[in-house]
Amino acid sequence: MEVLRLDRVTVSFRGRRVLDDVSLTVDQNQFIGVLGPNGAGKTTLMRAILGLIPPDAGKISVLGQSGLRGNPDIGYMPQVRSAGTGQRLCGRDFVAIAHGGHRWGWPRLDKRQWQEIDRALELVDARELARRPLMELSGGQRQRLLLAQALIGSPRLLLLDEPLISLDPRHQHGVIELVRQVSKQLGITVLFSAHELNPLLPAIDQVLYLGHGQLALGTVDEVIQPEVLSRLYGAPIDVVRHNGRIFVMSGEVDVEKEEHYHDV
Amino acid sequence: MFEYDFMQHALIAGGIVALLAGVVGYFLVLRGQTFAGHALSHVGFAGATGAVLIGLSPMGGLIAVTLAGGMAMGYFGDRLQGSDIAIGSVLSLSLGVGMLFLHFYTSYATQATALLFGNVLGVGTDTLWWLGIMALVSLVVLACLARPLLFISLQPELAEAKGVSLRLVSMLFLAIVALATAASVQIVGVLLVFTLMVGPGATAQKLTVRLGPGILLAALIALAETWLGIALAYFTDWPTSFWITALSATAYMLASLQASRNT
Ligand SMILES: Nc1ncnc2c1ncn2[C@@H]1O[C@H](COP(=O)(O)OP(=O)(O)OP(=O)(O)O)[C@@H](O)[C@H]1O
Ligand SMILES: [Mg+2]
């Protein structure tokens, strides 16, 4: 079944096109790695899918519905995470504020709703963790709570914007494995943006690579090809495979490693 | 002490305001917006003295100006972040302008002290009614607003994605803060609003990590501090505002000690 469809979509900021006439369709139960250099439009794509950025042209539909902000079928973990406020609150209450948080009223949950929260926490193995205040949790532990929060309301499409940020390789692996398990268990489609392809390789079904206003969607073997990536980077790209790892090179430079310098 | 009208009034007014300030303050602390309460009270001072000058009630002027200020802060929202100096200048200017207004007014000193440091022992029946209505309206609106307010405070991007209007919710909340501020001015005055609004909320958040119990605790702490402060003022003849600030600071320090011992 089709979960997401982009039909000749253009999104621009002040005349600069971040997505330029792109189309794609995504089926259910797919774990998709979303890649591309800084500024390629990964976040913009997700925000457009959420209805937060209206496209200049084209149509985005999620499970047949389009132009709907606040679609309950979409779960979202934003990239810019506001740390600082509410740090003294325990994780469980933090996760729970997302349950019906868009409705007016006093934040009271009934027993069934609390069970839903606890089930989400269990899925990410954070029941114990969630008793502690946020400020006492590590980056990876917080990430698990954020994932639980994104899962509330039984979404059919999960948009995770850079869930690996600030995690060491071991925890990166943990989060990827966790997301894969949860998504397969619930049969949801996941768009998972990241800066490195290799950690995702064992988990993902498809890659969505963005660059220069264009995108390419397909299996790793289909997308991670010199011709495809050269078009997306607007520069000649080599793809080097070594020991089951893939390196995307521009001349002598590994473009993924290169980006990290810009990140810091 | 309960036999005097003025004491009865003080305890009722103090109780109403404490409950309001405690609950609103909890959210203010949670949102990291404590400065807003402080700022609104200063702006309100100019409003109150301005109203006196043109022959209106200071309470009316206070409420009108804090409300306008609160809505404006909510409207501009993020754009105010990082403009501490601009806000600070507006605060000082408001106090200065307020003093100028008072200068033209004859009973300068009593008015000024009452506004700056509060006058809970001089609350009349009229004011009591006003405070009751303001508290009721604020708490009812807050009860309707609490869910989306918490959502936008803790997860703004996600809240936006779920269809919450960040601007509308923060404007409404700051309007409530404005009313709570105006009410608090009656008890502790413009300069000490921080004590009543921020102290109990911050103390409660040191004592519990749970949301519901935290809000309840903030209200109870504010109530205890206010009533105890009024009683101590009655027995010592020292200013009520002094006692409330002293209790508020002590409670916060004890809670901090307790919190650091637990970790
Ligand atoms: N609100 C905005 N106003 C103007 N330009 C924007 C806005 N948001 C994004 N852009 C621009 O759109 C482009 C895509 O940004 P986006 O955040 O989607 O990139 P990204 O792929 O998520 O990058 P990163 O890897 O750094 O997270 C960038 O050039 C950025 O400057
Ligand atoms: Mg991004």
Automatic annotation (TrEMBL), chain A:
PROSITE patterns: ABC_TRANSPORTER_1, ABC_TRANSPORTER_2. InterPro entries: AAA+_ATPase, ABC_transporter-like_ATP-bd, ABC_transporter-like_CS, Metal_Ion_Import_ABC, P-loop_NTPase. Pfam families: ABC_tran. Residues 4-237 form the ABC transporter domain. SMART domains: AAA. GO terms for molecular function: ATP binding; ATP hydrolysis activity. Keywords: ATP-binding, Cell membrane, Membrane, Nucleotide-binding, Transport. Belongs to the ABC transporter superfamily. This is Zinc/manganese transport system ATP-binding protein.
TrEMBL record, chain B:
The keyword Transmembrane helix applies. It is found in: Cell membrane; Membrane. It is a multi-pass membrane protein. The chain crosses the membrane at residues 6-28, 35-54, 85-108, 128-150, 171-194, 214-235, 242-260. The keyword Transport applies. GO terms for cellular component: ATP-binding cassette (ABC) transporter complex. Pfam families: ABC-3. Keywords: Membrane, Transmembrane, Transmembrane helix, Transport. SUPFAM superfamilies: ABC transporter involved in vitamin B12 uptake, BtuC. GO terms for biological process: response to zinc ion; transmembrane transport. Belongs to the ABC-3 integral membrane protein family. This is Zinc/manganese transport system permease protein.
